[in-house]
Design a protein that fits this description.
Distance between the termini: 31 Å
Bound molecules: NADP nicotinamide-adenine-dinucleotide phosphate
Structural class: alpha/beta
Strand order of the largest sheet: 2-1-3-5-6-4
Strand content: 15-25%
Radius of gyration: 19 Å
Oligomer: single chain
């Protein structure tokens, strides 16, 4: 590797099936940036060693995925307010590592591409993990009218329980929440390739208003059982691939200061659809 080539990584465990190298390699090539982007398996135990080798390998930036999104925090010189619930992008600066999260803005941009915003919406989140918390926080900032968080473990949503615009409910109240919902977002891994757990039933979709929009953060498969059930009920919906593309595009912008227009993001999206369809 020559010194002129910038090195970037996505780190996590497991990492072999990450689509990040495909996203960034396409963008670096398109913008003629001399950069190498690789996936590297890094466990939580190996994270200090990865951080130590950053200067030696000329690392300019790296993306962070499970299980390191919180583990990276002690190594940061700066953490952006967007990364309150986990870091997905780290830029290497002379004075240290700067951590960001582009997940919430990535989801919001994907939503906007489908003609939807949070403003004035009655939003129901299924799940309240790291991704959901960032999205809930963003939805509140973006003036959602009301948010219901339905989670298997109620206590995991406790930090939102005192917000007057948020209701935290057990799984058994999902259908009740859907009756007044205009935007339903699945943030659990239910329906994801390789995950045994599935939604037991989709009767909660029957009570959704006909104009409601259904979003799934899962993108593999491209059409989850939830989205197939929503489509069968003629509900508008989107999978998580747009979020994946836009969180990557927004991270690329942090690395390079290059603003990526929607048509280039669309090319990346099409490339990833091809990869997922061949899997
Ligand atoms: P996480 O922090 O582990 O949270 C997982 C959430 O799912 C928790 O609320 C958990 O409930 C719930 N859950 C897990 N298994 C369940 C089951 N069998 N039944 C009911 N609820 C269950 O994960 P995360 O980082 O937030 O990611 C969540 C999902 O979003 C993953 O599928 C991830 O791949 C996806 N994601 C997609 C993108 C994208 O770009 N499209 C970006 C980030 C994440 P408890 O609180 O009860 O444990």
């Amino acid at each position: 590797m020559s010194n002129a080539t910038e090195q970037y990584y996505v780190i996590g465990d497991p990492i072999a099936h990450s689509l990040s190298p495909a996203i960034y390699t396409q963008l670096f090539e398109h913008y003629d940036v001399a950069a190498q982007y690789d996936a590297m398996r890094v466990t939580a135990e190996a994270l200090p060693e990865f951080v130590r080798m950053i200067p030696k390998r000329h690392v300019k930036g790296f993306n962070v995925t499970m299980p390191l999104k919180r583990e990276i925090e002690p190594f940061l010189a700066y953490r952006d307010p967007d990364a309150l619930y986990g870091v997905n992008t780290v830029c290497v600066h002379p004075d240290g590592l700067y951590g960001y999260s582009t997940d919430a803005q990535g989801f919001r941009t994907s939503l906007a591409m489908h003609g939807r915003t949070y403003a004035g919406q009655q939003v129901v989140f299924i799940g309240c993990g790291g991704a959901a918390k960032a999205l809930v926080h963003d939805a509140l900032n973006q003036h959602a009218a009301h948010i219901t968080i339905v989670n298997r473990t109620i206590e995991h949503a406790s930090e939102f329980a005192n917000d007057p615009r948020v209701t935290v409910a057990p799984w058994s109240e999902l259908a009740d929440a859907c009756a007044h919902c205009s935007l339903l977002i699945n943030t659990t891994p239910l329906g994801m390739h390789g995950v045994a757990a599935q939604f037991a039933a989709f009767d909660f979709l029957d009570v959704l208003p006909k104009t409601a929009f259904v979003a799934d953060l899962v993108y593999n498969p491209l059409e989850t059982a939830l989205l197939a059930a929503a489509r069968a009920r003629e509900l508008a919906c989107m999978n998580g691939l747009g979020m994946l593309v836009w969180q990557g595009v927004l991270a690329f912008q942090k690395y390079t200061n290059i603003t990526v227009p929607a048509d280039i993001a669309e090319d990346v999206h099409a490339h990833l659809v091809g990869i997922l369809e061949r899997k």
